[in-house]
TrEMBL record:
Annotated keywords: Cell membrane, Membrane, Transmembrane, Transmembrane helix
Protein name: VANG1 protein
Chain intervals with Polar residues compositional bias: 74-86
Organism expressing this protein natively: Ibidorhyncha struthersii
Membrane topology classification: Multi-pass membrane protein
Subcellular location: Cell membrane
Pfam families: Strabismus
Residue stretches of biased makeup (Basic residues): 19-35
Residues that span the membrane, as ranges: 111-133, 153-172, 184-204, 224-244
Region (Disordered): 1-86
Record's compositionally biased regions (Basic and acidic residues): 36-45
């Protein structure tokens, strides 16, 4: 082995030396041939951003997964990897700075609403306490003594405030899931209602109690208790408007992905358009299969190949316009339509055959690998505890035996951009830890799963755009259509109202279930 390493190092040193000498000879020849090109290249400047390698298992370039690959591509293919460099212009830098400013504005908007709600909530909880404490601080000597009933009201105020605090925390102080374009109408109305309610109580308290210095302390405490009771009723109203009103299904929405036509149906209650859009996006990430643009390139390449085979000759001279050529190409494509379906049929049949073949190889390779790790576990149990393998080491030990089959299968099905080597190792170690079967391990790769199943950096869209002819704060209605757009595709949402169902009842007498057997003489009975 050392001799092989010495030979390899000598070969690499020789290659480096020969390459360096050739490069120096070429530079000297270019210097004698065109000295101006060197000065010109030295004066040019460019800004580059080096992107780190993405540690793919199979290379994320979808163009490498062409259908023309044979089954033995691994033996005759040389892969060259490295760090790529991309130039960036001044306009790109300006756009990046604008995106940063927009994100900062969204953060400020989010925290501003949370701050206003927190200040108003603090004012609400401190108001009953202030109503009780201010007379004790300002004119304590003139107050009437507080009896048993008054002291019992203290306990009532304390427990009601505690219940109100817990309910407010559970209903309002939640982690926001999204930034909506417009304000939530019901929540804003509740905040305005609470502010007006507390302000009116403070106004009455200042005019009738503070100015006159009322000495009836029990009446003051009862006034504070009435405020807390009213706040509890407002909290109940908030539960009805924000939570219970939307539970009853009233509409059925059909969500269609614009690129491949995949669709789902959902039932929604009384919601605004922007909140319905949030519900649709939440269900999209868990119900729709991951968007794979590589699957759409086959039809485009086939159409481009058919159009490339057409040749148009202009016999009228260069003065003729291009519309005649386009009509001629469309007519020729229509004439070739009868033969194109045969090509499509054989292409799909060949693709299915290759997928089944590589799937069978993958299943066999994974089953053999899991059998190997089970044997290793049985052997390691008899050794010392310090020599036991953890799941990560076991996954790294059996992964090379299945990597080739998994690589070919993912490239054939064009899923290689969603599965990195690190994610596959993590999933394999997870399956080994929980004693899962080979079939459970392969479930993620044999069938395209929902979007949430894959790495967040590979599918998550940071921004969606809601396009609607109606105001996004208005409620759902029958026939409304709105669109959710992201960078690569869009979701078209069509709203239909659930029809009114009229159900009638019909009574059947149990005694009417009687039958007679009719026999004929010609029968054998």
């Amino acid at each position: 082995m050392s001799a092989a390493m010495d030979t390899e190092s000598t070969y690499s040193g020789y290659s480096h030396y020969s390459g360096h000498s050739k490069k120096a000879h070429r530079q000297g020849r270019d210097r004698h041939k065109s000295p101006r090109s060197k000065d010109g290249s030295r004066s040019e400047k460019s800004v580059t951003i080096q992107t780190p390698p993405a540690e793919p298992l199979l290379g994320n370039d979808a163009s490498r997964a062409e259908e023309g690959q044979d089954d033995n591509w691994g033996e005759t293919t040389t892969a060259i990897t490295g760090t790529s460099e991309h130039s960036i212009s001044q306009e790109d830098i300006a756009r990046i700075s604008k995106d940063l400013e927009d994100s900062v504005g969204l953060e400020c908007k989010r925290y501003l609403g949370l701050t206003v709600a927190a200040v108003l909530g603090l004012l609400v909880f401190l108001t009953p306490i202030a109503f009780i404490l201010l007379p004790q601080i300002l004119w304590r000597d003139d107050l009437e003594p507080c009896g048993t009933v008054c002291e019992g009201l203290f306990i009532s105020v304390a427990f009601k405030l505690l219940i109100l605090l817990i309910g407010t925390w559970a209903l309002f102080f939640r982690q926001p899931k999204a930034d909506i374009p417009r304000v939530f109408v019901f929540r804003a109305l509740l905040l305005v209602l609470i502010f007006l309610f507390v302000f009116s109580y403070w106004l009455f308290y200042g005019v009738r109690i503070l100015d006159s210095k009322d000495t009836n302390y029990q009446g003051i405490v009862q006034y504070a208790v009435s405020l807390v009771d009213a706040l509890l009723f407002i909290h109940y109203l908030a539960i009805v408007l924000l939570e219970l009103r939307q539970l009853q299904p009233m509409f059925t929405v059909k969500v269609v992905r614009s690129t491949d036509g995949e669709s789902r149906y959902y039932s929604l209650g009384h919601l605004s358009i922007q909140r319905a859009a949030l519900v649709v996006l939440e269900n999209y990430y868990k119900d729709f299969t991951v968007y794979n643009p590589a699957l759409l390139t086959a039809s485009k390449s086939r159409a481009a190949k058919h159009m490339a085979g057409l040749k148009v000759y202009n016999v009228d001279g260069p003065g003729n316009n291009a519309s005649g050529q386009s009509r001629a190409m469309i007519a020729a494509a229509a004439r070739r339509r009868d033969s194109s379906h045969n090509e499509l049929y054989y292409e799909e049949a060949d693709h299915e055959r290759r997928v089944k073949k590589r799937r069978a190889r993958l299943v066999v390779a994974v089953e053999e690998a899991f059998t190997h790790i089970k044997r290793l576990q049985a052997e390691e149990q008899q050794k010392a505890p310090g020599e036991m393998m953890d799941p990560r080491e076991a996954a790294q030990a059996i992964f090379p035996s299945m990597a080739r089959a998994l690589q070919k299968y993912l490239r054939t099905t064009r899923q290689q951009q969603y599965h990195s080597m690190e994610s596959i190792l993590q999933h394999l170690s997870f399956c080994i830890t929980n004693n899962m079967t080979p079939k459970a391990f392969l479930e993620r790769y044999l069938n395209p799963g929902p979007t949430l199943q894959y790495d967040r950096d590979r599918w998550f869209s940071k921004q969606w755009t809601l396009v609607s002819e109606e105001a996004v704060t208005s409620g759902l209605q029958d026939g409304i259509v709105f669109v959710l757009k992201c960078l690569d595709f869009s979701l078209v949402v069509n709203v239909k109202k659930i029809p009114f169902i009229k159900l009638s009842e019909e009574f059947i007498d149990p005694k009417s279930h009687k039958f007679v057997l009719r026999l004929q003489s010609e029968t054998s009975v």
